[in-house]
Amino acid sequence: MTLDQTIRQFLDHQLSNGRPPHTIGAQQRDLNLLLTRLGSDCDIRSITAIHTDSFFLSDPVQKQADGKQKMTSSINRTRASIKGFFRWLTDTGQIDHNPAIGIQIKHKNQKPPVFLTEDEKRTLLKTIRSQKGWQTNRDLVIVNLFLHTGIRLSELVNLDIADVN
Fold this sequence. Notes:
With 165 residues, this protein is mostly helical. Helix content is 59%, strand content 0%.
């Protein structure tokens, strides 16, 4: 079985399992990098860990078109796509060994969330209450909803009165 054929089968499998189109598109771009590196006629059973290691060290994976280093999150997405592809090949019995099993995804250190102290919350709400006009009640509802529900800002912005029960 050629690499080109199995990539198409994998993407069809992802589509049939309801994966979002943007996820499938990203996987297709990542797998096309592998296809370019190894060739479309490459027999999937001949791919080894040496091939995957050299692929992940290659410029198309590591660098942007302008030569700058890609972000860790972009490289991680490529790693996840390739790992998922070879895991699927192994799970479906198309290959006996997974050449990407040793590939590790680097986890970046995430900053802890920034939040308001209780005093800052009180000051914010007091400042809003001291305002005059019809917007005061609206602003109080918005800020209270945001502070006390854990709603995301994008969800709050997109909230419609019809969404409220």
